[in-house]
């Protein structure tokens, strides 16, 4: 009986975990904190069942650093990511799969680290 | 062995096992011993040997319930049914919570854009967002092409060096 209760509890916990949304940390950067910031352009949309968010940072190394740090934490949640570094700066793409759909997170940073672009894009279903 | 509700002690069980090994039990007694060994959690070298010979497992071996002289099977089934019912109720609730929360508030489509610290009008926002989406799609495509090219180079390397992946 004890064994059954343990198995049942574990099944319940995994069910609840499965029901949880993917908890993308960079998504929290779109909570409105940069809306009044003149060095940041924010774009948010939902259209045809697709969520899209983008931050474009110009000449603000502190915000670029904050985004890069947050993205590094998200990177640990997936094994599907690709990074390219060259003279033009660095580019990163992360793919997070949830509910059978893929969320693309892209990050492009210039060599100086002062300007960068971050975006999140994916079907609505993937964010639930 | 004749009394159905009497639970044998370990010693009594061992004695019966001795008799079984000496082929001194009747067919009926053997059957009863076999049933009894499936119900109790008694262990000794002899008892385990008899279990092995009889090829049986103790699947109902909760000592406390055995001592209370109760049959386990119906109760266990009841617990299983209760647990399954609870699981079904939770699954259905979660499904409805997720469905209702996602459909209740949000509009079908929206566009929001902040430029230079100012909120743009809906039309302007839509134009800016479409442009941003296009640049994001180009970025994804470029990264996928680079990834594919890298993979091709890796495959070529393995092929040229006669290595297996």
Number of helices of chain A: 2
Largest sheet of chain B: 2 strands, antiparallel
Give the oligomer, counting copies of the same chain as homo and different chains as hetero.
heterodimer
Q: Per the principal axes of the C-alpha atoms, what is the gross shape of chain B?
A: elongated
Query: In what range is the share of β-strand residues of chain A?
Result: 35-45%
Main sheet: strand order of chain A: 1-2-6-5-4-3
Secondary structure: helix percent of chain A: 25-40%
Record field, number of beta strands of chain A: 6
Rounded average pLDDT of chain A: 86
Strand tally of chain B is 2
| Tally of individual helices of chain B | 6
- SS-derived structural category of chain A: alpha+beta
- What sequence of helices (H) and strands (E) makes up the elements of chain A? HEEHEEEE
Distance between the termini of chain A: 35 Å
* Helix percentage range of chain B: 55-70%
Which stretches of chain B of 5+ consecutive residues score pLDDT under 50?
none
Order of helices and strands of chain B: HHHHHEEH
Characterize the structure shown.
The complex is a heterodimer of chains A (about 130) and B (about 160). By secondary structure, chain A is an alpha+beta fold. Chain A has one domain (about 20-125). Helix content of chain A is about 25%, strand content about 40%. Chain A is built from 2 helices and 6 strands; from the N terminus they run H-E-E-H-E-E-E-E. Chain A has helices at about 1-20, 60-75, and strands at about 40-45, 50-55, 80-85, 90-100, 100-110, 115-125. Chain A is elongated, with a radius of gyration of 18 Å. The mean pLDDT of chain A is about 85. Chain B has about 160 residues and is mainly alpha-helical. Chain B has 3 domains: about 10-65, no CATH class; about 70-105; about 115-160. Chain B is built from 6 helices and 2 strands. Chain B has a two-stranded antiparallel ribbon with strand order 1-2. The radius of gyration of chain B is 36 Å and the shape is elongated. In chain B, about 10% of the residues are buried. Strand 1 (about 40-45) of chain A pairs antiparallel with strand 1 of chain B.
């Amino acid at each position: 009986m004890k064994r059954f209760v343990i198995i049942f509890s574990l099944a319940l916990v995994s069910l609840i975990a499965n029901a949880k949304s993917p908890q993308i940390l960079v998504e929290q950067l779109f909570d409105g904190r940069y809306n009044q910031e003149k060095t940041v352009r924010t774009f948010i949309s939902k259209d045809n069942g697709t969520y899209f968010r983008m931050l474009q940072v110009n000449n603000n190394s502190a915000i670029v650093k904050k985004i890069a740090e947050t993205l590094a934490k998200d990177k640990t949640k997936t094994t599907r990511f690709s990074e390219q570094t060259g003279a033009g700066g660095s580019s990163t793409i992360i793919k997070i799969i949830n509910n059978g759909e893929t969320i693309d997170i892209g990050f492009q940073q210039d060599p100086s680290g002062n300007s960068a672009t971050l975006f999140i894009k994916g079907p609505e279903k993937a964010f639930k | 062995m004749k009394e159905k509700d009497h639970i044998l002690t370990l010693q009594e069980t061992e004695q019966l096992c001795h008799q079984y090994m000496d082929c001194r039990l009747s067919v009926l007694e053997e059957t009863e011993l076999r049933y009894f060994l499936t119900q109790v959690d008694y262990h000794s070298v002899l008892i385990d040997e008899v279990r092995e010979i009889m090829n049986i497992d103790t699947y109902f071996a909760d000592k406390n319930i055995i001592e209370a002289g109760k049959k386990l099977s119906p109760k266990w089934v009841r617990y299983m049914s209760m647990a399954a019912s609870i699981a079904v109720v939770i699954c259905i609730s979660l499904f409805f919570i997720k469905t209702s929360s996602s459909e209740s508030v949000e509009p079908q489509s929206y566009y929001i854009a902040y430029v230079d610290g100012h909120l743009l009008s809906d039309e302007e926002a839509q134009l800016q967002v479409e442009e941003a989406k296009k640049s994001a799609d180009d970025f994804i495509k470029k990264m996928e092409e680079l990834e594919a090219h890298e993979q091709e180079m890796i495959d070529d390397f393995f092929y040229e060096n006669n290595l297996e992946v």
